[in-house]
Design goal:
This protein is of the alpha+beta class. The chain has one domain (2-179): Gcn5-related N-acetyltransferase (GNAT) (Aminopeptidase), CATH 3.40.630.30. 31% of the residues lie in helices and 34% in strands. The protein is built from seven helices and eight strands; from the N terminus they run ββααααβββαβαββα. The protein has an eight-stranded mixed β-sheet. Helix 1 crosses helix 3 (41-51) and helix 5 packs across helix 6 (136-145). The longest helix is centred in the middle third of the chain and has 16 residues, at 106-121. The chain is globular. The chain starts with a strand and ends in a 10-residue tail after the last helix. The chain binds coenzyme A. Coenzyme A binds at residues 29, 32-33, 94-96, 102-108, 131, 135-138, 140-141.
Length: 189
């Protein structure tokens, strides 16, 4: 539905459950997310049932599947959550599930596409995220896609035996539209 150079974004489907379960409980990936304990198929089914019926404005969230543009293989998911209509603002999240697919440019492309969706489709004004201080790969990808470092929440999260700072990053509409003005898209089919 939305096309980047390496990935496209489409609606998540209930049928994605099996492919989600393939890598979701991999600690190499999950150590960078808020929860790092095993999730059952039942929990993931309920999560899919919830997010596949979400309306961004009524439910404050939107989750899309990331697929390899060439092979159509499922790579992970990306989301807006806590969408605020009043402030035209949302928080952003992403996970490429299989560590074998890290560092291949998929993430940067998907983040850029989501910024395009946020600013061009949802009409947001500000998009922000938090990421672990140790997640340097994510910070690189976010910066290349258009996020800027905004600050730190000190010792905000506990992961792998210690408290970590959260790096806060944000992107605003006026900056993104300089690169992608109305009428432009990131890429085509
Ligand atoms: C974070 C994530 C979305 C990034 O996507 P990706 O496809 O792996 O990243 P990209 O290949 O697009 O870009 C990563 C950049 O960081 C660099 N990089 C890769 N591994 C790195 C590492 N271990 N340390 C530092 N930099 C690294 C890459 O070289 C690349 O920069 P470059 O293109 O200038 O060379 C993905 O790795 C992921 O989902 N990780 C697990 C879950 C996660 O961390 N989610 C985000 C939580 S906030």
């Amino acid at each position: 539905m939305y096309y980047g150079e390496k990935v496209h974004l489409r609606a998540l489907e209930l049928e994605d459950l099996d492919v989600v379960m393939e890598n979701w409980n991999n600690l190499e990936m999950r150590q960078f997310l808020a929860t790092a304990w095993p999730m059952s198929k039942n929990i993931e089914r309920k999560w899919l049932e919830r997010v596949t019926t979400m309306d961004p404005w009524k439910d404050g969230g939107m989750v899309l599947a990331i697929e390899d543009k060439k092979t159509k293989k499922f790579l992970g998911s990306t989301s807006f959550f806590d969408i605020s209509k009043q402030n035209q603002r949302a928080e952003f999240g992403i996970a490429i599930h299989n560590p074998e697919n890290f560092g291949r440019g998929y993430g940067t492309d998907a983040v850029r596409l989501m910024l395009w969706v946020g600013f061009h489709i949802l009409g947001l004004n500000s998009i922000f995220l938090v990421t672990l201080d140790t997640n340097v790969r994510a910070q690189h990808a976010y910066e290349k896609a258009g996020f800027k470092r905004a600050g730190l929440y000190r010792q905000a999260t506990y992961m792998m035996g210690k408290f970590h700072d959260f790096v806060v990053m944000d992107a605003i509409r006026e900056d993104f539209l300089k690169q992608y003005p109305p009428g432009t898209q990131v890429s085509g089919p």
